[in-house]
Each structure stands twice: as structure tokens, then as C-alpha cells.
Design a protein that fits this description.
single chain; 827 residues; mainly beta; Immunoglobulin-like; 7 domains; eleven-stranded mixed β-sheet; membrane; Immunoglobulin_dom; inhibitory MHC class I receptor activity; Ig-like domain-containing protein; cell membrane
Amino acid sequence: MTSILSALLCLGLSLDQRTRVQAGPFHKPTLWAEPGPVINWGSSVTIWCQGTPEAEEYRLYKEGSTAWWYQQKTLDPGDRAKFSIRHTTKPDAGRYRCYYRSPSGRSEPSDPLVLVVTGTYSKPSLSALPSPVVTSGGKVTLQCGSSWDFERFILTKEGDHRLSWTLDSWPQTSGQFQAMFPVGPVTPTQRWRFRCYGCYRNRSNVWSLPSDALELLVPGTLPKPTIWAEQGDVIPWGSSVTIWCQGTPRAEEYRLYKEGSPASWYQQKTLDPGDRAKFSITHMTKPDAGRYSCSYHSPSGQSERSDPLELVVTGSSSTPSLSALPSPVLTSGGKVTLQCGSWEGFDTFILTKEGDHRFSRTQDSQPQTSGQYQALFPVGTVTPKQKWRFRCYGCYRNRPNMCSLLSDALELLVPGESGKPSLLSHQGPIVAPGQSLTLQCCSDVGYDRFALHKEGGQDLPESLVLQPQAGLAQAHFPLDTVSSSHGGRYRCYGGYNLSSEWSAPSDPLDILVAGHLLDRPSLSVQPGPRVASGENVTLRCQSQSPRDTFLLSKEGAADPPLRLRLKDGSQQSQAEFSMSPVTSAHGGTYRCYSSQSSFPYLLSLPSESLELLVSEPSGGPSPPPTMPTSTAGPIWELYILIGVFVALFLLLSVLLFLLLRNRCQSKDRTSPLRGAHVQPPAGTTHPKGKDRGPQNSSGPALDAQEEALYASVKDPQPGESVELDPRNRQDEGPQGVTYTQVNRSRPRPRQRMATSLSPLLGGLLDTRGRQAEEDRQMDSQAAARDTPEYVTYAQLNLLALNEKTTAPHFSTSDELPDEHIVYASLS
């Protein structure tokens, strides 16, 4: 029993520990509102929820709602998310909480944020008893009252939304409702500025308009004001700048001073709100550069001066260049060196970071052997959590506030792991000098901006996204007129406006500039420009000058051109591109280029175009002949003419052979069935397997011919002739033997029997073989009178025509040498 209890206890402890490990401790997120939790009716508010960098999703919900109110992905940095309300009204007031989700699970909810909407009712009044002037360490009572029957009054201190006091109201005999707030001890080390509101208990988060601000004045030394320039402290020549000076609400007048001037440089009354004033310079020039400070005057006296603000005017000298070594593209956590240089002999160079006016680094310039002056600025560790965009300018020591123009902006790019975009060129990968070049970067991911980078280049041009089409984000990068400097390897990146992180790089795109080398290679093909599918084809590119690289491009092809690099140190004048075996996809127009490996993106002039025609080995009709555009065209025209003459010669030879054979047959009519024999009419359907009786003793060769070539013919009736039925299918037996059904028909005119022959052949037969044809018809009709009517097939052994040679008996005058004779056996 004890062992069972011990086991159960251990199991329970194990389960308890495992549950705690799975749940895991999560940091409770922080929730706050900007500009604050007290929002005027109709104003916008941003609610921030901050957790941990591992958070993947944040959720905001309002107490009293059945589900979460809003869902948001993480922003940059990844430990927070923001939720915006553009137009705040009464339903938006209430208590909010947030939590986040991470791969480990879900956090606990944040502390509540009470969002208050003001402006529903008229504003109350706020006063100090006995006076708003309080000695240091003294106390005062603030009275908030209204003629509305508010059940509660709320007192807030400006600048710190965490300080808020709430008291129940008390009706007065005068008909007003009011509450008394004791405040103190009051010290001059901080600002004591208050407002109050009225509300009801059942709508505690809906307040009235705020009262007018009341500030307690503590006599003594006034705090010094703060000074800053709205556009930054580096101002281009001729631009405008606004200088702000901020003090206390009781300030009545502000004064701006410039170092080196004997009196105040500018005087300005307070603005709304009354704790600040602005000073504008509409056109910055050399006299406006320098160090500035400000002060304010109040009923309590004059404040001390602010800390100095140094304004620098740029544009008095040429623009320096800013580059990243080794490249502006680097991995997260990496370091880089920024180089600012100029041909002008500046004493110092200053590096600034956009969006961070506190970042300013100064380095003395160093003269170089090339004649340039430059300074190196190490930068790092670089992370994708912020934007790394820099400019630099040069200055002289005797004029520290008059400097050069700002350099072009240089942004360091830290690629991320999001989907890579695609980069393409509308003009194709091979361009010519003087041609306009535009690169397009696109992605199905909804990026807001794209950046283009050239390998080995220091610039990183950026472009905003054009209007998305069919869900495709894209941007165009016009690179002006093509020159040799445009040749190179390019990649592009996608990014978002609210994030400094970029996507993974696109696949590289090589831009090749043709015409840099003035020679023009020639392109030829072996065995010829017309080939059948499955053959081996070799395209040969030959240059007039020794080259170590050759390229072959196909017109209209999306793939980059084929590049053939010869062996190291090999300088030859030609290269061969093999296609084994070719298909119809290889057909098209080709050109070739030559190049040097030391300048791989600069090519020669293109060769003359060569059209490769690929035909299928069998099938439908071959395509109409198309002459290639290469110089081999006249040779093929000669081949075609030769082929036509050979075909005509063969046709005349066949016609002459037919003429001689018919002549021999017409002279040997004494034995009309010479070279043939007639079987007795026994009613059999096939001559094979039957005893054919006595044979013609023309020798073994003639017997073999008779076995291979015979015909059985249906007996015609008197007055009828024999014809082949074209509707009956010809069947082919073994060894190429063809069977044809013979049908009976009425006699036809002689001219209709020859309609299937060509006019030329018909004319020859008509003049030489008319009598032989009539004799054969008479013999056939005579043999058919004594035989019954039946259907047989005629078998023609086509192989025998080329294999057997006999020497039949002819008359002495017509005897011919041995030749191929066709024999027929009639059954």
C-alpha cells in the first residue's frame, strides 16, 4: 500500500512539474495610449501593446466584449504592436487589456488601460485657493466646479497621465456642484499644470470637456528653455528652417540669440500653447550659419539661456561621395565601413544618420595618392530593427558652419528571409549603347518599396511601388541611356515602409552591353540550317580576334544566353555550341557574341542572324521552306535546283522503261500468256495447295516468280469487264504481299479507263499499247466463259520486283538484256 501511494505521489509531482514547464513563464505585456488615455471626442488614438521579441501576434480586447476586439501582427521592432482608433466616440471609452502569442504559448493579460473620451458635456472651471502663486514646499487647494449636476470631478496633471484624482461632487447653495483637491507640497523642480473634468457614475469613462489649464507658480529661478530646429541642424543652402523655443506656460515673450551678435537676434510672443514660440528663417545663407540659444520672460522674471543649437548651412562646395566597404548589403549583426571622399581639400568630413539628429560623427580627412581626400567611418553592429540611411558632407576648420553639399543618401541593406522578388529587363539581357534601359522588380508579396543593387556597386537606388496590378507589386528602375558602366549583375529587394528589414534577394540578372568590342563574329551551323528532330547540331561562333569567351543567344528566349568559357589562358578564335539531339524547341533565330573574361559583361558586336529549322522525322506535312538569313542561303538554292533536275531525269527514265516493256509485249502476242500459266477451273479460291498441272518450262527462276506473284480473277459475264473496287481495303499479308479484291462491272469507254493515269503516261500507252490491251481483254473473256462466278484476290509480291531477274524468250530483233520482269499467275 505504501509503495502504491509513493508511486502515485511521484507521478503527481512529475505531472505537476511537467505542466509548469509546458505553461512556462511569460512576461506580462505593457499597454499604453498615445497621445494619452484621455482623448477628445472625434480625435484619433494609438494603443500600444509591448511584449517580447518572440511574440508573433498581439490581441487587444475591451472588457465587456464577448471576444477579442482587434488582432495585429508584430511591427518593427518585433516586441510590440499598435492598434489605431481614427475617430474616437463614446462606445470607444472603456477598459482595455492585451496579450500576445508566441511559439511557446500565450501570455497573461496586461494591466488594464482606461480610455476616457472627453467632450460630451460642457467644461467646468478650475481655480486655486488661496492663490496660484505658491512658495516652494507650500500647499494649495484646487477647486473644480460646474453648473451641471456632475456626480464626480477628475483632476489631472499635464505631462503625467498617471497622476489623476477623483472626488465626489458636492451641491452648493448657489446651485453649482464642486469638489476640492488638496495639492502639495509644491516645488520648483517640476511643472504644476492642471485641468479638471466632470462625469457621472454610470458613465465613468465619458467626461466633459476639459477646463482651462491652471499652472501653479513657484517663485525662484526659472527653468531654462529647450531649443531645436524642426528640419534638423544641417540645412541646405536656400532652404527654410523653423527654430522652436519651449519654456513654461507663464512665459509672455521669447528671445532668440545668435552667438557673436551683441543683442537678441529675434523676439517673439508666445503661441498656443503658451509654453513655446517659433522663429522662422525663410532662406538660409552663409550669414545664418552659427550657434543659437533662447530665453523667455514671465511675470516672475527672465529665464536663463538654453543649451546652444548649432546650425550648419550646406551647399557652399561640391558634393562628396559616400560608399560602403565592401558592400552596402550585409548580414544582420555585421559591420561596415563608410567612406566619404571628395576631390576638394576639406579639413573634416561629417557623417549623419537620417531620422536621428543626435547621430553625428566627425573625422579629419586624409589625402590619398589619387589626389582625393577621404575619411573612413566604422559603423556597426547593423541590425534590421532600424533604418540605416546615411549622408556625409565636408567642411573647413576656419568655416565650421559652412560646409559642402550633402552626399547622396546611402542605405545599408540587411536582407531578411521573406519571399524574394523577381527582377527582369524589358529590353532583354543584351542591350546596346544608346538604348534606354529599365529594370522591373515585382513580387506577389505586398511590398511597399523595392531596392535595386548592382554587384560591386556602391549605390542602392530605391523606388516606391507602383499601383499593384492583379495582386502583383512592382517598381521600375530607369537606368537612363546604356553605356559600358551599365554592364553587371543586378539584384533587387522588397521591403515595407514601416519596417527597415528587406526581403531575400532576387535571382541575379546579368545585363550585357554589346558593341564594346568592335569585332563582329560569324555564326555557322553543321550539318546545315535545316535538320530533322533527333539529329546532332553544332553552332560555330568564329571571331576575327582571339577571345576566351563566346555567347550564343536565341531571339525571343527568356533564358539568358549560353556562355562558353575556354580553358584558362586559351585565346582562340572560335567556339562550338552542341545541341544533341535537337527538338522542335531548338528551332529559331540565333546570334553569337565574343567577349573577354576580364570584362565579362562587355560584348562584341552581334553576328549576322542564323535561322535553324527543325522538322519532325515523320507525321504531317513538313513546314513550308523558309530561307535562313545567314550567308549560307545561295548554296542551298543550288542544292534545290540540282534536286529538281535529278527528279526530272528519274521520271523520264521510268517513262522510257514503260515504253520499251509495252513494245516488247505487243510484239510477242503469239503467246499471250508468255511467262504465265492458267490453272484448270476447279472452283478453288486459292492456287496454293492445289495441283496446277503442267508448268511452263521456263526454268527455276520463272517458277520462283510464279510462286511469289500470282492473281486469281473473278469470272466476268459476257459483255462485262473486270475492275478494282477502290472501296475495298487492301490487306497486306506476310512478306509484303498485298491482296486486292476484284469486282465485276459493265464495260466502259476506253477513254474512261485511263482517267486514273497521268496525261503523259496515258498518251504513251495509248500510242504503244492499245492493241496489247485489247488482246488481253479478249483472252480474259474467253477464259471466263467456261468458269463459274466467284470472287478471288490478286496477290502481288512486291519484294520479287527487286530480287528476281529472268531472261524471257523474245524475237531476235527485240531481244533485250536481262532485266526485272513482272509475271502474273491467273486462276
